[in-house]
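Let us work through a complete example step by step.
Step 1: write down the sequence.
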Amino acid sequence: MDTPREPRWLTEEEMQTWLALVSVLIRLPAALDGQLQRDAGISHFEYQVLAGLSMTPERTMRMSELASFSDGSLSRLSHVVGRLEKRGWVRRTPDPADGRYTLAVLTEDGWDKVVATAPGHVEAVRGFVLDPLTKAQTRQLRDIGRRIMRAIDPDDTCLG
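Step 2: predict the structure and record it as tokens.
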């Protein structure tokens, strides 16, 4: 019979590190979302969808791949793409290579929206994350983020 292991409690320093990370995880998405809502009238998730499409060949991606890229469920993505379609920024079409799939396609108006929105978003990312750090700290943050993502999802394709 296995005896239960005593929890590996956090040291004071580990607790302070954890609390700092939790604060970032909670407040950074809200800060980015607020900037995008205020300046562009879209949510951070909507921007991720538009930006994801803007970076692909022919500005097109299968909905299932786009859901994975934007870290949302297919159901959530479908609702968001529906809203983006109503604004004329995205359209859906059957995948000609396999009709079981649906493609999301960034329209010219959608491209224009990304181009208009990106400078403010990049400035917010710089202001909130990169500018407060030294170049060495930026590299460390990248490496730390990659290590944490490997622990969470070893098969993650965004690790680069």
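Step 3: interpret the result. The longest strand covers residues 90-94.
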